[in-house]
Queue: 3 jobs
Job 1
Amino acid sequence: MKKWLLFGAIAFVVVVALASLLLVTLNQEKEVIPAKVVEVSEAWKTVDHPMYGISFEAPIDWEIKVFESGTGRISGFYTNDTATAYLDISMDISVSNPSLEDVSKSILPLTGEEIDQNGLKGISYVGQVQEEGVYEDDVQGASLEIKLSDDSYLAGRRLITESGILEAECMIVGPDYASHISTCNEALDSIRKI
């Protein structure tokens, strides 16, 4: 009887210790590493966003801002006398285990083509700015009034990641918009997993 009591006490201590260890492990938060510029060349800067699991390139003269203490969406902005470019990268986590069909629905009414971009599957699309309005420039604190016109370009990528659907758009407006199209596309094409 004493052996069973001793065995029961040891088993109870082991179970309590394992349960405590499991609770401690589950309650540990994932280390938060904020997004930041990690490399700068003459023409481009590399931005790593560990929370989104991506890295991308942006032109050196574009202002870049990361929200939510470096863990949220990214906004980029460039303006001159004849054109304004706006880059926005965010994560839609509302769809669990997103499929290419989910991604295609997220860009409606636009249509796109399926891509495999640096290991990320998704949809690429282009068009013109579809909505009039005032876009607040979160980077420089100014606002940009958009009117529907032929002087605009919109390119985007919706990419499936482990966290959800990565939404990346680059919009250019102004009479000289066409000279900035390749820059917008290069920034979007540079998105890759880290």
Job 2
Amino acid sequence: MTATPKPATELPWHYSNTNAEREYVRGENNQPVFGGHYTGHGNRYGGRKPNGHVTKDMKYIVHACNTLPTLQAEVERLREALEAASEAVTMELNPSNYDHDDVCLLNQQCIEAMLTIEAALQTEGSE
């Protein structure tokens, strides 16, 4: 698995429209991450003010970048819960392999696994 790329400018980022001529995505200490002039010569937008798509895209990039760490933490939390549930059941379901005590133990392990999965799937504010 490859390492997750990290931004050079620490999150969170924010969208900044200092005036009608400039739009930026900014990071820590209001440092520009990308963006720039839309009018004049020599800019990356060819001297034209964008049609609104650039603004929407910049705001979407800010949202996506700021949301990524939360999503990565949630994926890790769910992965750990599923691993714990997987490790909770240690017996094979074969009627000839267990007696009454084994059935009770297996039942308890399955209940523990299901409770772990249910707890992992609960999100804040859900019922």
Job 3
Amino acid sequence: MSSEAIVSSRRYGTVELEELRQKFPAYFKELPCKCPHNEAYPQRLTAYRLCINQGKLTKDDFIPSNQEKRSKPLAPDNPSTYSASLIKDQCDVEKVMTYRSSFGKIPRKGTIRESHGFTRHSPSKSLNSHYDFWQYESAEPWAAFLLNEDDERNEE
């Protein structure tokens, strides 16, 4: 278990974390894996999300990986399949844009809050600052993201 997960379990307690898991979409209970990941927890995280909308952000900008259009299927037994990707560092965003630019996505910066869902640091060989984000069913994290670096938040 990561040190972040240990701190989280001390901060929230096992019972409270299990209660928070009830806020996720009902289909999570039917998955072949525990979703979100056991090491995920609610935390405040300022990061980037690659978004499809040019203007105001919507829930379509925060759909999980399993609902995105992809050329190859994702592993159904991997909890990350049911999360949205976040990238913490600008240099990793720049890397991603070189090989994902054909998707026409735009990096938007914002802060995921504890009230939005669970996150887990999930670095890869090429992206050290990648995080998985499982949002609560009724959360609206897109309201906390900037339209661009100079704009106000996406909120009305």
